[in-house]
Amino acid sequence: MKNWLVTGWPGASTPATVLPERSLALTAARQDFFAAAADLKLPAATALLDRIEVAKSMRELWHLRAEVFALVSLELSQLEADRRLAALNRHFPTRAPRSGFVGLNNGRDNMWP
Q1: How many CB atoms lie within 10 A of CB 48?
Q2: What is the rounded CA–CA span in Å between residue 94 and residue 109?
Q3: CA pair distance 102, 86, nearest whole angstrom
Q4: Are 37 and 68 in contact (CB under 8 A)?
Q5: CA dist list (Å): 65 to 5, 7, 50, 57, 103
Q6: Mean pLDDT on 17-36
Q7: Which terminal residue of the chain has fewer beta carbons within 10 Å of its beta carbon, N or C?
């Protein structure tokens, strides 16, 4: 399965409107999302991996972050979920500062003393 992440589907062509940098960024992000959830054994993890596999844009992957966080928290730990989410967030440097989604241990600057 990881081969297609690098090479794409056999016979599939990249639309001319997609910039090579964006395609490479999507591939790299997809690989990291897959790695973040590949070791999970919960039944919902299989469905998540399927959605990661078919994600066509960074925006679609952005919306899968919450599910990765939730499943990793349930199966492993919140600390591990925070770590994996931080690794995924590096793919989204232009995200809105008030996106409303951070790990429970992150964003302490925004809380009262």
Answers
A1: 21
A2: 19
A3: 9
A4: yes
A5: 18, 24, 14, 13, 11
A6: 84
A7: C
* Average pLDDT score over residue span 56-83: 96
How many Å apart are CA 91 and CA 94, to the nearest integer?
9
Rounded to the nearest 10°, the torsion over CA 48, 50, 56, 59 is: 0
pLDDT band at 47 (very low <50, low <70, confident <90, very high): very high
Q: Which residues, at least 6 apart from 27, have a Cβ–Cβ distance to it below 8 Å?
A: 5, 6, 8
Which pLDDT score, from 0 to 100, does residue 21 have?
A: 72
- For residue 28, which amino acid is it? A
What's the distance, CA 22 to chain centroid? 15
Mean pLDDT, the chain, rounded, equals 79
